[in-house]
Amino acid sequence: MKQNKIHYRMVITILAIYIAIIAGTIRSYDKTAPIHPTMQSLINGTWAEQTENYLQEHIGFHDVLFRIKSNTDLFIGEKMVQGVYITDDMLLEKLYSDDIPAPSESAEPVNEFYEDTGIPTYFILVPSASEIYRTKLPANAINAEQKNRIQQIYMETVNGIHCVDAYNILSSLKDNYIYYRTDTRWTCCGAYYVYQSAIQKMGFTPVSFQKYVISHMSTEFRGNLYEKTLYHEVRADVLDRYRNESGAQITSVIAYDANGQAENRGNRLYDTSALTTNNQYQYYLGKPCQKLVIRTNIDNGKKLLVYKDSFADCVIPFLVHHYHEICIINLEQTGMDFTTSADTAGYTHALFLCSMSNWENLIQ
Amino acid sequence: MYLSSFTFIVLILPVMLSAYYLIPVKWKNGFLLCCSILVYGWGNPFRLLYPLACIFYDYGIGLLLERMQKRKRLSVAILAFSALVQIASMTMLRAMVQGRTGFLFPFGIAVYMLQGLGYLIGIYRRRHMASVKFVNVALYVFMFPIVYAGPLITYLEYEEQLSKRPCNIIQLSSGLELFVRGLAEKVILADTFGYIFRELRQTGQMSMLTAWLTTLSFSMYIYFELLGYSEMARGLGKCFGFQFPKNFSHPFFTSSITAFLQSWNITLLLWFQTNFRYFLFSRFEKKWQKYGFLILTWALIGAWYGIEIQFMLWGICMGILLSIEQIAGLDRLFMEENARKKRYVFGLIYTAILQQFSFVLLFADNLTEAGAIWKSMLSFGNGIADQTGFYFFTSYIALLLLGLYVATDLFQNITERISVTPIGQKLAECKPLVHGLLFLFCLASMLYGERMTELWLKI
Questions:
Q1: Which of B11, B169, B399 shows the shortest C-beta gap to A7?
Q2: How far is B431 from chain A (nearest CA, A)?
Q3: Predicted confidence (pLDDT) at residue B341 exceeds the cutoff of 90
Q4: A4, B170: Cβ pair inside 8 Å?
Q5: What is the DSSP string of B93-147?
Q6: Residue A16 contacts B where some CB pair is shorter than 8 Å
Q7: Do the beta carbons of residue B304 and residue B267 sit within 8 Å?
Q8: B51: cis peptide before it, omega within 30°?
Q9: CB contact under 8 A, A14 and B435
Q10: What is the DSSP string of B327-347?
Q11: Domain coordinates in residue numbering, chain A
């Protein structure tokens, strides 16, 4: 009799878990997720894969379950969650050393661009926070090296391409708030110092730090590393806006999507509506688009072409004070194909600004 | 679809189980076959082509063999021919699968090939009749939980269960219990060990610590992967009223290679013993023939695991070690009951070391790599420990100990002794709660981390 009772209890326990999980999954059902089957996707297995991925991300009580797992992992001694090292005051992305392209391969796209167009070209590869803050990583942590690799890529560039050594600038400012604690990207502060050095090479005088009025647009920013780990113990980040009242005024911002469809964003660079969403980082340049053209009231006739990943988003507001027009190509959407993405005629300068890890991923 | 996927556990399993318990008895077998087809062909119906062809083939040849029973020579010829066709097609498919993932290629080919072949040999040996019911053959060859990693069963045991099996709350509860345990072994232990193994293997020059950790994590990975899937299969089988045999019985921490192999993939060994030995073993009387045959059997078992030459080599090594142990009587010498403590401990160490060395063959890409790892395991050439080894050692020592605890029967005695005390009985009442929590933790573990599936493309 007693045995029977245990059997009933076992079935009821599992059943209760099922009901809770399934109810939770139905409640958080996301209509926009691409799990509607088509004949093609049913046959070639993509639908099955999508359903599995959907369930993995949207299963009922996802966050609770996730925290149970990550906290147990951390408890038993693992110092990493989903490829992110957890330290006391920062989340640091793990850098992998497999499938790294050769330096000459990494430099080739920029070389080709310069040789084809002849536009004075500037090249900035930004190291990851886990390279700058190597000492903060857990003991014996395995992390690929970036400093020398960046140097090697710079060495492979042809004469005439100006490379900016972001590593040295940033590592000398290590003690400042130059990288977000919960995001892979750098802060406006980190970006400013690299901008300062780059813009001098481009022949302008940088706007001095004192001229900027800094306002905290959000003090509750949790970035992509938080999304990956859901680790709450690291303090939330601050999103800053650097305002230079005496600087240039933006006259128009036009975004183009992959089909060349234009969207007029008025004369506002910042997207305040992003601050209320999950993706607060989009505050800087708005929704990612393939091409963004910014015009200012500066009448020097100078035009800048920027090839960038999301690292550059917070650099652009500094650059607008020097150019009449800035055309920004999002490499994350176009890939390494420079010829079709923009007409290069008439530009004074070209700037390649990308994080080292993104750049190498894109090369592959 | 893998049994350890959300799609199966959250979507399919609850619907399947409730439907199974609601439909009338006479539909149950047909329903199970439909489930098997659904689970196997999920996301890619083309994958079903080969197994379905196999089932029709086995069914037809089975009936033919039954008819030809009086003509001994002809039936031997038919059997040999059909075995050849199956083995050749399996080898071909496996060679095609190599290096590719998923699409048309079926997995678990080796498992249902053996099941089908066992069925035919059984008819030839007149251990059972050929089944006229197609569903029975189809379900025997191709029932979904066992397609992945066994356990293999004989048709004789199975046929009885097909016509009559219990279907009640006790079956369901103990089935779920087993399933949850199997799932935990797969997603908590196997996947993590698989991850450690893969990370460690990328280290170019291995230090001694790293080399040992690599083989240890691989052996834990492959053990828990196979064990997890076998246990899940047994659990699901129980939910459906079947009684499948155990496939593993604590193969680590044994005192001889013989004992290790007897508790490793038991049903596979049993299959080879009953079906393969029958033809050849009785004809061998001389000692060297016997041992030669033993080595041959193990070479085939090795080849069953995978198409690469190292698998067969692993089998041959195991066969040789077994022969040596049997000739020298080592297995009995080291047995716990017979041996004095010192001898027993020596046996344990000797087996553990040989085990680890042999596992290198199963994961190395080629013999040169295996040689390099063996060298690192034995010499200080690349240092005693390096950063990678040290990091994983400190990060996963707790898990490694847990894995060793589950994999050995070291503490079996303690648990058994506790279970008869009043406290133990009280604890037994908490079983549902413990398994519920374990199930939740399994779901949590599936949210991120590695899903190791490479092994399934090989088997």
A1: B169
A2: 7
A3: no
A4: yes
A5: HHHHHTT--SSS--S-HHHHHHHHHHHHHHHHTTSSPPPS-HHHHHHHHH-HHHH
A6: yes
A7: no
A8: no
A9: yes
A10: HHTHHHHT-TTTS-HHHHHHH
A11: 1-60, 92-363
Which parts of B281-386 fold into alpha helices (H)?
Answer: 287-305, 309-328, 330-333, 341-363, 367-378
Where are the alpha helices (H) located in chain A, listed in sequence order? 2-27, 39-44, 46-58, 62-76, 103-117, 129-132, 147-156, 166-172, 188-201, 224-229, 316-319, 331-334, 338-341, 356-363
Confidence of residue B439 (pLDDT cuts 50, 70, 90): very high
Task: Copy the structure tokens of residue B276.
Answer: 């393969």
- Looking at residue B103, its pLDDT comes to 46
Instruction: Report the alpha-carbon distance of residue B156 to residue B51 in Å, rounded.
Output: 21
Q: What is the pLDDT of residue B259?
A: 83
d(CA A248, CA A319): 10
Chain B hits for A68, CB-CB cut-off 8 Å, are 440-441, 444
> Residue A355 pairs with which residues in a beta bridge?
A126
Can you tell me the ipTM of this complex? 0.80
In this structure, the number of other CB atoms found within 10 A of the CB of residue A259 comes to 6
Interface contact flag, A17 B428, Cβ < 8 Å: no
Verify whether the Cβ–Cβ distance A66 to B433 is below 8 Å.
no
Sort residue A317 into left (φ over 0), alpha (ψ -120 to 50) or beta: alpha
Are residues B243 and B171 in contact, defined by beta-carbon separation less than 8 angstroms? no
Pairing between β-strand A84-86 and β-strand A80-81 as defined by DSSP bridges: antiparallel
* pLDDT digits 0-9 by tens, A259-311: 878 888 888 888 888 888 888 888 888 888 888 899 988 888 889 999 888 88
Measured between CB atoms, does A69 come within 8 Å of chain B?
Answer: yes
A51 in contact with B at a CB cutoff of 8 Å? yes
Q: Which residue has the tokens 């005693």?
A: B384
Residue at B363: amino acid letter: F
Q: How many residues does chain A have?
A: 364
Q: Is A79 on the interface with B (CB under 8 A)?
A: yes
